[in-house]
Design goal:
- It is a single chain.
- This protein is α/β, with parallel strands linked by helices and 318 residues long.
- It has one domain (34-311): UDP-N-acetylmuramoyl-L-alanine:D-glutamate ligase.
- Helix content is 52%, strand content 13%.
- It has twelve helices and nine strands.
- It has helices spanning 6-26, 52-63, 75-84, 103-112, 126-141, 170-178, 183-191, 195-205, 207-210, 246-261, 264-285, 294-317; strands spanning 40-44, 68-74, 89-93, 115-118, 145-148, 164-166, 214-218, 223-226, 231-234.
- Strands 3-2-1-4-5-6-7-8-9 form a nine-stranded mixed β-sheet, sandwiched between helices.
- Strand 1, helix 2 (52-63) and strand 2 form a beta-alpha-beta unit.
- It is globular.
- The N and C termini lie far apart (46 Å).
- The model is unreliable at 309-318 (pLDDT under 50).
Length: 318
């Protein structure tokens, strides 16, 4: 792989700053706000095999600017996450997997949260699938926003979802459609190589799902965000972003922005832009090609605080 030229590196850095600035413009806070006023995200997921997925999502949510990130996971997984970061609140659920019996314990945290992110690292045990759909139903009943990601996409009942961002890649989209009696549509989309045609077909055929205030963030070489009224393509990113965990970071950013703004389309679009911009920045900084990991995305998100401080200082001088 050829080393990136200085001018190209500068262009990537400039794009990153512009993306960050556009996000920060909308994520304003009241000077007298208190803990929790600027977004509470509950992440439900994790298993003994996939400890990192909910942790990455939760840390990305915090780096995205929300006040609190709470991770509910099987007890050993939750303890491991607590050891990874003192910034995360963890709810220890008895057992090795997420179970429908956990719904009662989760209810008070669902009530507290602005957004529930369900799916990262959850697994697909029968009882886990049952819990995921129970959580989605509870969130709907309480008028909460949802981000449905990873394993949750493979068992979600689309006709029962509203006020949600769904974040499938191509294979997850295919499984999601097949599980919702849309096998023919899944086959048509899988055969199509044109992203624009694929998006138009999807938007037409599941218009009833989109009309219930849902947004689909279709992940790929170019992300496509589909709502009832708009289809937006997000370019950028690079093959290094196939490394495990970048999707968890993206889901965490979606949840964070949504918890702070209540705007589904804005959150999906800007989470996608931010994730791709960071991926390109990491590649530009690398001297050895594709070797960055998902945790590196969190470090770059941390540096955005500098941009925020610069913006504030400029305003104060006016």
């Amino acid at each position: 792989m050829k080393k990136m030229k200085p001018k190209a590196k500068q262009k990537v850095k400039q794009k990153m700053k512009q993306t960050a600035a556009s996000v920060l413009t909308k994520l304003s806070r009241k000077p007298d706000s208190h803990k929790g006023d600027n977004g509470v995200v509950l992440i439900i997921g994790g298993s003994e095999t996939y400890v990192g997925a909910p942790a990455l999502a939760a840390l990305a949510a915090l780096r995205g600017g929300c006040d609190l990130a709470i991770v509910a996971a099987p007890d050993k997984t939750a303890w491991a996450i607590s050891a990874l970061s003192p910034d995360l609140i963890t709810v220890k659920l008895k057992g090795a997997v997420l179970d429908r019996s956990h719904a009662k314990q989760l209810l008070k945290y669902i009530r507290k949260a602005d957004v529930i992110l369900v799916g990262p690292g959850a697994g697909l045990e029968k009882t886990t699938r049952a819990l995921i759909n129970t959580v989605i139903a509870l969130a709907q009943k309480l008028g909460k926003f949802l981000v449905i990601d990873a394993d949750a996409l493979k068992c979600v009942q689309l006709n029962k979802v509203s006020r949600a961002i769904l974040t499938p890649h191509a294979k997850e989209l295919e499984l999601m459609l097949k599980n919702n009696q849309q096998s023919v549509l899944a086959q048509k989309i899988a055969r199509s190589r044109d992203m624009q045609a694929k998006s138009a077909l999807l938007r037409k055929e599941i218009s009833s799902v989109l009309r219930r205030h849902n947004v689909i963030l279709l992940k790929g070489a170019h992300d496509v965000i589909i709502s009832a009224k708009k289809t937006i393509a997000i370019r950028g990113g690079n093959p290094g972003m196939t490394v495990g965990g970048t999707g968890d970071v993206l889901a965490g950013l979606c949840a964070s922005y949504l918890a702070q703004t209540g705007d589904l389309l804005f959150s999906a679009v800007h989470a996608s832009k931010m994730n791709k911009a960071i991926g390109d920045l990491l590649l530009a900084k690398s001297n050895f090609g594709f070797g960055f990991i998902a945790s590196d995305f969190l470090r770059e998100l941390k540096k955005l605080e500098k941009i925020k401080k610069i913006k504030k200082s400029k305003k104060s001088k006016r």
